[in-house]
Each structure stands twice: as C-alpha cells, then as structure tokens.
Fold these 2 entries.
Entry 1:
Amino acid sequence: MASNGSATVRELVVEAAAAINRSRSIDHWQPSLARYDAEELMSEALGEPLTPEARRSRLAAAQRRRFATMVARRIAGEPVAQIAGHFLFRGLDLRVRRGVFVPRVSSELLADEAIRAVRRRRNRRVAVDVATGTGPVALAVAHEVKDGDVWGVDISATAIALCRDNARRLGIGNVHFRVSDMLDALPSDMRGAVDVMTIHPPYVARGDLRILPREIRDFEPLHSLTDGSDDGLGLVRRLAADAHAWLRPGGVLLVEIGTYLSRKTQATLRHAGLADVAWTRDALGVTRVISGRRPR
Ligand SMILES: C[S@@+](CC[C@H](N)C(=O)[O-])C[C@H]1O[C@@H](n2cnc3c(N)ncnc32)[C@H](O)[C@@H]1O
C-alpha cells in the first residue's frame, strides 16, 4: 500500500478496499465486501472496533506495517478469518486456522433453524451436526439450548481438535466432538434417539473445483469443498439414507446447500422416505436450508 504516515485510518481503509477490490483471487460477488474486509483487518490492526474517533486517528508505524501485511495477504486470496485467526458466529468468537473450513455467516441460518427445531422437541433434546468443521453450528445450538445434548462429527482430526478447543475456551459443556466418517463414530445407543441432524456438506461437484476462486480453492482443504461426486450430493445421499435409523420419529434433518442444488436435495430427502420436505433461504437468497422429517 502506498500511503504515507499522514493518512488517517479512514483513508487507509478506503485505499485498502480499492486494492482488495482489484484482486483476481477473490470472488467479488457483492460490491461492499472489499470495504467490509478492509474494515475488519483495520480493526484487527488497531486491536479495537472502528469507532468514528478511531476512523479519524492515525496508525502508529508498527500498526501501519501490520495492516499493510494483512491487506497483502487478503489480496493474495487468504480469507479474512484466517488472517485474523478468529470468526464471530452468532456472538461466539470461534478460533479459526488454516486446514479447517472457515465458517460463513450464511451458516447462521442453519444454526437458527436447528435451534428452533431442537427447542420444539420435548424431553431430552439431542442434536448432531455432521461435517461440523470448526463447530459453529454445534456450538451455537449447545450455547443457545442449554438443556440440549449436542454432538459434532467431522472426518478431519484437525477440525475436531479445533472444535474441542473452541468449546473449552467458550465454556460450552453440553457438546461432544468426535472424529468420524459421517455417523460411524457416534455411540450406537443414539440410533433412533436424535431429534435434529444438521449438515453443511462439501457440495462442490468434482468437475466444478477448477472454477472456484483462489480464495476458496487455495485456502480451504479439498475434503471441505467436495465429496468427489459428480453432482456434489454424495454425502447428502449418505446422510439421508441413514436418517431413518438415527432420527427419533418426528425428528428433523436440516441440510445447508447452494440454491442451485435445492431441488435435487429436496428430491433426495423425499427419496429417502423423509416427510414434510421444505426449504427456507437467507435474506440474500444465496443459501438454502432443506428440511425433512422422519414420519411418526
Ligand atoms: C463445507 S465444510 C462445513 C463445516 C461447518 N459445518 C461449517 O459450516 O463451517 C464441510 C466439512 O465436511 C467435512 N467432511 C468431509 N467429508 C466428511 C465425511 N465423510 N464425514 C464427516 N465429515 C466430513 C470436512 O472436513 C469439512 O469440515
């Protein structure tokens, strides 16, 4: 970045946003995202929120260098959460690291649907988040449903170590994490006893990997992007087929999926014998959550 030491924080943010906007490693699907990234990174460099007063201030030399380094990393495609090392999800400050899928704000819809579905259940409230990553959905459900018994599973041992670390740091005790290929490592006495199952699967079709922007292709682990199937729904089919055996009668499966896979996912859930198949979407219309219920 070219700015000299006399530039204000506000000016540095504007300059950084323009530079981020020019990066070809980033998917600029919304015009305001570069500005948002620059503000996040500035807040990290300052070590405090960007108040109006902070925007009028000037950075110390060390802060300016730190900010410039972080902006250069972002321009190369590294996600802001990986640069910062943490991500705020439904008010939970989650630790994030390279090698584990970075949580997305869009998954708050899945957490929201899961929390509402778990709260509707009586007696023990058991929830399982499959392919949990850093554990945002499992941790949010456990945090917001204190009498819930929540499980998170992921095939990646690195991810599960991070989930456990996040749970410990946040003081969330009603959540258990297991390294598991789908449901394989869950205790067998949970069969037929799960109220709500969630999944945000790796749903990029094998053939679409090469068209992903660098910020995703180069910075997220491959197994968090694709299950290697031709249509991206390999894990959804596996989970839907198992749903009957693991859900309680009336229990719900919730699948977060890209809009373009919505219809096919609904058909998959119906084909697996789930009832009341429906969908909901986030305000931007980018993400859909498909739901299906085990008949009573
Ligand atoms: C798109 S990420 C979602 C992570 C997290 N749920 C979130 O929303 O941030 C998909 C996750 O699926 C996991 N995964 C891939 N194959 C799996 C399998 N066979 N069994 C369990 N988890 C798997 C990956 O390790 C990755 O963490």
Entry 2:
Amino acid sequence: MGLKIVMLGGPGAGKGTQAKRMAGKYGLPHISTGDIFRANLKEGTSLGLKAKGYMESGQLVPDELTCELVANRIVQDDCGAGFILDGFPRSLPQAEEFTRLMEARGESLDVAIDIDVTDEEIVERLSSRRSCPKCGAIYNLKFGPPKQEGVCDNPECEGEALIQRKDDCEATIRERLRVYHETTEPIIAYYGDQGILKSVMGTGVTPEVVFGKIEEILSAMGA
Ligand SMILES: [Zn+2]
C-alpha cells in the first residue's frame, strides 16, 4: 500500500518539521518543490532548463510546469511506498492540475493533512525568531532562546548580537499570511470536497502533540 500525502498549513505552522519526522518514521521521501527545482537544474533536465528560464527573467514558474516537475519526481524509485509533499500544491490551479496529472496515471492522493494554527500564534512564533548574522543560527525567544540574552551561543561568534531578519518582522509575516489565505487556503476546501482532508489543531500545542495526532490519522489508514 502506498501513502501519498500532501501537507497543508500556513507559514510557520510547522508542516516542514512534521513532514521530516513522518519521513523518518514511515520511510517516505519528504519532497519540496525547492528540492525538485534544484535537482532538475543540477541534472540539466529539459524541464529544469525551462524553469530556469522563467526564474532568471524574474517570472514565476507556470503552474503547469511546476506540476509536471512534481509529477515526474513522484514516479521515481524512492516513491514506491508513497511520498510526503511539503509546500505543494500552493494554489487551487496547481491542486487541480496535479489531480489531473495523477488521474491520467490512474493514481490519486490518499490524504491531505492540514495543520491549523491561528494567525495570532503564527505571528507570535515567527516574530520571536532571532538570527545570528555571523553563523546563521536561529533562536526563538519563546521556544529556544540563547543562553545569554541577545547574543549567539556559538563560541566562534564571540558574543555576536542577534538580529531580527526582515522575513521575521510582523509586517512581513502578516503579508505572507494574507497571501496564504488568498492563494493557498482554498486548497483545504478542495481536498475536503474530495474527502481526503484531515485537519490537525496546531494552536497552543507542541510539535510532539501534533505529530501524535498525525500518527493517529495514518494508523487509522493502515500505516
Ligand atoms: Zn553565531
């Protein structure tokens, strides 16, 4: 039996973290579009070169091309027992196109797991991140603060002052959330209509609790 999984959830909801743990426990490849693009560029595939052309001219890679790249990735040998998609599909047109591509191969997704975290918690989580400009270490003032307030733990950084990156400022996070609600969130209802949606409450709970709920969902599916 294959387990073909899509992870959904807003920025900072923790889908990458969960996908990584699931990959470890269930022996499934954790697939992100970033990794697919990089692999295709490295191997110089024709799809990769096409995508490169769009990226170099500052354009978005069209949905059709992105879907084709993902569809090619999930037929590779390591996906025999299934896969975990993280960060794809990103929009309703991508989700629809991906369904068509899967159907054309007589396949379908088994489950879409949505980690549901409120905007307020996401803002709180992401805006409390601080990074070291020297070594790139990331701290979270609430969940993983440095030993000494405001400076990097790494001895080689010699007390370098931590900074808040522009990506982690509240205004940037709010804008990402707005784009998420507008562009990506409609996918949740789409998979709901297909009967494969499972929602996990991620607000106010630890990543361990979220993972426990995901294990329950997958074990009910026979994993
Ligand atoms: Zn550092």
